[in-house]
# Entry
Amino acid sequence: MLIWGQTVLEPHLHGVGFLVYWLVFLGFTCGAIGIGLLDFFAVRQELKAEQEQLMASALAEADPRSELSERDEGAKTPPQADGR
# Structure
C-alpha cells in the first residue's frame, strides 16, 4: 500500500481521498502490530506455563520424598512375598 500510494495512486489521491487512503493504511498497520503483540503475549504465556510444568515434574522426579516419585517407585518394585 505504501508503494502504491507513493507511485501509482499519487496522481489520483487528492483532498479527502488522500486522507482516507492513508488513514486506511494506518489502520492496517496498527492492526498488524496489535495482532503481532497479542500473539507475542499469548506465546510467552504458554511458554511460561510449560516451563513451570516442566520444572515441577523435574523437581518431583529428583526429590525422593515427592508424591510423584513414590508412586513411580511403587509401580517399579514388585510386591514382596514374605509379608513385609
Notes: The two ends are 80 Å apart (CA to CA).
